Amino acid sequence: MTRISVKVDGTTYEDEVEPRLLLVHYLRDRLGLTGTPVGCDTSNCGACTVDLDGESVKSCSVLAVQADGCAVTTVQGLSTDGEWTGLQRAFHERHALQCGYCTPGMLMAARDLLKENPRPTADEVRHALEGNLCRCTGYQNIVRAVLAAASDEEVRA
Amino acid sequence: MIPPAFDYVRPRTVEEAVRALADGGEDAKVLAGGQSLLPLMRLRMAFPQLLVDTGRIPGLRGSRMEGDTLVVGAMTTHHDVLRDALVRRHAGLLAAATATVADPAVRHRGTLGGSLAHADPAADLPAVVLALEGELVAVGPRGRRAIPARDFFTDYLETALAPDELLVEVRLPSTDGWGFHYEKFQRVAQAYAIVGVAALVRRDNGSIAEARVGLTNMGSTPLRAPTAEEALAGAGDAAAVKRAAGEAAEGTRPSRDTSASPEYRAHLARVLTGRAVLAAAGMG
Ligand SMILES: Cc1cc2nc3c(=O)[nH]c(=O)nc-3n(C[C@H](O)[C@H](O)[C@H](O)COP(=O)(O)OP(=O)(O)OC[C@H]3O[C@@H](n4cnc5c(N)ncnc54)[C@H](O)[C@@H]3O)c2cc1C
Ligand code: FES
Ligand code: FES
Questions:
Q1: Looking at beta carbons, which pairs linking B68-73 to residues 24 or more positions away fall under 8 Å?
Q2: What's the pTM value of the predicted model, to 2 decimals?
Q3: Topology of A2-77 in CATH?
Q4: PANTHER family under this entry (chain A) (predicted)?
Q5: What residues 69-108 of chain A have any CB closer than 8 A to a CB of chain B?
Q6: Which residues in chain B are contacts of A117 at CB distance < 8 A?
Q7: What interface predicted TM-score (ipTM) does this complex get?
Q8: B-chain residues near A49 (CB < 8 A)
Q9: Domains of chain B, with CATH numbers?
């Protein structure tokens, strides 16, 4: 067992973990943060995307011990006092989801894009979401939602 | 799936890492970005007993110039390579190919050194470093040595690195002023290349003075295309480039898989070499 200290959505946790524990399983099974789903066994789908020290990562492809000393933001840490971010509102308003399984990862990947590139083109949005698979929507409304969020001043604030 | 159990250490220095690798023997493995190793372990296709996490060793990230040579730390992530001003200027081909690797989340973790040490012939960066005529610097219990890229990739997923050697940096002679292009043929976005071609071109008076062609996924290792390179020297127009590109599959032994037959791969190598060289030469 290895001792880790990780800040997740603003709360610091100290834990003993097996080195083989994946970050996504730590979040879901140990911390009960089931907002971050697992969608594949091959690191392809991006459903598990979280923010690790300011960068989007696939939490199924990071060990919990690698996150020792780091700050993680999951989809559950986006809203403040129950108030959605502009990006979340845009997903809701533009029907950017059907079953919703890919949505946490889409939100985290889109958020990462908007941090680096606040005014992306549709093409840039598609490239940025290349690692996130959606089996329902056909992507069209997801791209629209990200573009809508980008033109909304509040998102970037 | 859950990876098999292993021990984990996180050394603070290169020396500590090398010692841990030497103590762990054949069953120890470096964990860099983990973007190839952890997926393999999740699928239970790799069973290391000890992972030596090199993610927190200072000094293995970023780039610097030593004379005309660009030195890139092995632990530099794909994401950082893409944004590195020295890489863009002195090894534009590396930046261009890195932009086609995986997706943003994988590029935040995956490293240049990890991609080269993994030595997947379908990965994009090995053929690029071969075309850039780079050197890979390794540190082991017996000291430090530089391995030319042409001697580094020995077979499918095999390199000249000993199990107790750590790749620390990649040295790339500057190709500032050369034209470059990476042409990748893939079935869907975020996928490995069915075939990829890395082209570097030095022009003189409008025609090609020197061309280098690196091939991704045309055999069990990344390859150069020497017959095409020779034929390209002196080519002055698109027709001459396309003729020379017809030699790009000479001497290769591409594999057969669910995406392509060897014959189709050879066809792709010829067509993509034409496109890559024309783009690199600004003749496209
Ligand atoms: C969904 C997905 C898509 C991808 N698509 C592409 C693609 O299109 N093109 C492409 O080229 N790659 C692709 N990759 C692979 C990606 O580029 C990896 O980042 C890279 O292959 C491995 O780098 P890493 O740092 O993650 O290495 P790791 O996974 O940590 O290590 C890989 C291997 O190299 C060894 N190793 C690592 N670093 C060192 C070192 N410094 N010294 C000695 N040995 C070392 C490890 O022991 C291990 O055996 C993809 C990966 C994923 C998950
Ligand atoms: S669950 Fe992580 S990429 Fe699919
Ligand atoms: S909404 Fe169902 S997978 Fe995207």
A1: B68/B173, B68/B174, B69/B171, B69/B172, B69/B173, B69/B174, B70/B171, B70/B172, B70/B173, B70/B174, B71/B169, B71/B170, B71/B171, B71/B172, B72/B112, B72/B169, B72/B170, B72/B172, B73/B112, B73/B113, B73/B168, B73/B169
A2: 0.97
A3: Ubiquitin-like (UB roll) (3.10.20)
A4: OXIDOREDUCTASE WITH IRON-SULFUR SUBUNIT
A5: none
A6: none
A7: 0.96
A8: 105
A9: 7-52 (3.30.43.10), 63-173 (3.30.465.10), 180-280 (3.30.390.50)
